[in-house]
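Before anything else, study the sequence and fold tokens given here and see whether the fold suits the sequence. Record follows:
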Amino acid sequence: MPIIVNLDVMMAKRKISLSELAERIDLTLANLSILKTGKAKAIRFSTLESICEELNCQPGDILEYRPE
């Protein structure tokens, strides 16, 4: 899939764990894990907004397009 999820990179830069981020943005650990591993088929803008707000980043820092 040409959309790459760099959530793990941003979490490492901000030194925040998956469970801590899930708690802060009120998302289940399982759903955040699916997003982090790139297995998600979609993401709600409200979820993306919450992640960006908590990690102090832009959507482009988390999502990347790489043509196949």
The two ends are 8 Å apart (CA to CA). The first helix runs from residue 7 to 14. The CA atoms of residues 8 and 36 lie 6 Å apart.
